[in-house]
Amino acid sequence: LNHTQPLPSHLHLVAPSQPDASGSARAQGLAALDRGGRSVEDGGSPVSLERAFRSHAPFVASVAFRILGAREETEDLVQEVFIELRRWLERIHDTAALRAWLTTVTVREARRRLRRRRLHAVFGFADALDYALVADSTATPAERALVSEIYRILDRVPTEARLAWTLRHVAGATLPEVAEHCGCSLATAKRRVARAQGMIAEELRDA
Amino acid sequence: VTPDLRPHIASALRAADPEWTASDTEQGIRALRTRLRRRRVGARVVAGALVAMISTSAVWLYLRGSGPASVEAASVTGTPLLFADGSKVVSLDESTVISVEDARPERIVAVLARGRARFEVTRNPGRVFRAVAGAVSVEALGTAFVVEHRGGLVGVSVQHGRVRVTWPDGSRELGVADTGWFPPPDAVRHDAVQPESAFPAAVPSAPGSSDGPSQKGSSRDGTLANSPDDGVPAWEKLAAAGDHVGAYRMLRAAGGRVNGADELLLAADVARLSGHPAEAATYLERFLREHDGDGRAETAAFSLGHLLMTRLGQPAAAARRFAEARRRTRGGSIDEDALAREVEAWSRAGDLTRARDRAEDYLKNYPGGRRSAAVRKFGGLD
Questions:
Q1: Are A150 and B18 an interchain contact pair (Cβ–Cβ within 8 Å)?
Q2: How do residues B218-230 score in pLDDT, each as one tens digit?
Q3: Closest-approach residue (CA) in chain B for A194
Q4: What residues of chain A score a pLDDT lower than 50?
Q5: Which of A45, A183, B32, B378 has the fewest CB neighbours in a 10 Å radius?
Q6: With an 8 Å Cβ cutoff, are A135 and B10 in contact?
Q7: Do A24 and B20 touch (CB under 8 A)?
Q8: What whole-number distance in Å separates Cα of residue A199 and Cα of residue A114?
Q9: Does A139 contact B at CB distance below 8 Å?
Q10: Predicted structure pTM score
Q11: Nearest by CB to B2, which of A26, A49, A201?
């Protein structure tokens, strides 16, 4: 989470990291997101699916990954989100609205997957997830271990609370934004965040 | 989380990153193309199977009876009239009389003498499909619609796709969820046979059905804007289904009238999410004016400030709304965000003194707050 950037005037969720020197797609994608509105390249017309993917896939991946903590599932989720977008693309004429829409669809799809994971766990079909890979290459071993532990705890947190807490504390959304993307009231969003926070605090204390 | 753990957790979570690269994007685009191609092929296979099944039924119907060109059928409710291209007509009440005037590969004309029927037309740009009811004809390309023929008036309700409705001295295109009675009121001759009651809202509805054009509530042009059954405006239903563009269109067709706190907030969302920020701001202003004591007023004020700053280019007005949100929340959870946004808004409005004052307030109230860096920048404290 990048707190050193200016307040994002268009982004609802804070961009995940600094643009890197290698000019990665992540950096390009976030730059495009930061522009807001229609881009010059689009010539004022609604964006194409491919262009939308180039601009927004890094953002969607970032939100999805922070919720799920699993790279492979994230890639699949990104695909599903953009397939869904294809059905609505002609109706979305504003990239600011597009970004909020993508976030909401990402949260919805992530919720479905988290519930499926739980169901699989109940029947003993769940694969063990290796959360040691959640932290990026810049993380220290201690940070890596802490992130891994938090995601293991999140697996025991109720899905809605997990979504709200992750959006708030990992993706950097404000509480009103959490409420909007989770489709609940502000009070409910606060309650869910607090519930997850309480569980994490308790488990970390016990650890 | 206990205060001593918080910085460690925040620092560690910053490292949670998929490290998405340009190569991931390119691979993703390739995978997306493949996935879409597979789905298209799958959809075609299913559609092909359906067409084959329907065609077989049509052939059977043709061989069994007198053939489609002279059919006077489908007068039994629910019995479909099938055409070779997969289009079909379903009678919706027992008084319905349909005949097929023409059924060639390039042209199908079905005549609704009376009653109600649903037309499901297979998309085929090379063929004209026309439903004729009295002096009104409805022409479609790949759509489903209901036609009701009562007392000289013809009701049309589009379920998907588009149709063109033509009457002796005019025509109009209808899209999804559009409904109307034709000829429209100003085109009806005074000596025309009128339905039993006033036109058009009280045109009698077909028995036992709610999917036709007999709906309550109408706009001036005869296009009906409310849903047929439960009194919930259609635009609210579309909004609930996530179709904000459609909901906005419906809301406008209904004259943009909304009442009550819930409707105002929903209308604001619909306008905002369909790309009409100025109207969204109007609804939010009205909400704040008319529902001052509502518990959602703080969020409404914040949203209004956000719209004014990011979409409407009115940073000074935005700053005042953020201040209002803070006043209403009284130290609540959105106070920090509202204060940070207020700093940004005053800065964008060029009022650097106020931006600095608010920035100092922020740093005092939220030392180490997560918006500190931006607040310092916009407050000129760097």
A1: no
A2: 333 333 344 444 6
A3: B1
A4: 1-46
A5: A45
A6: no
A7: yes
A8: 18
A9: yes
A10: 0.40
A11: A201
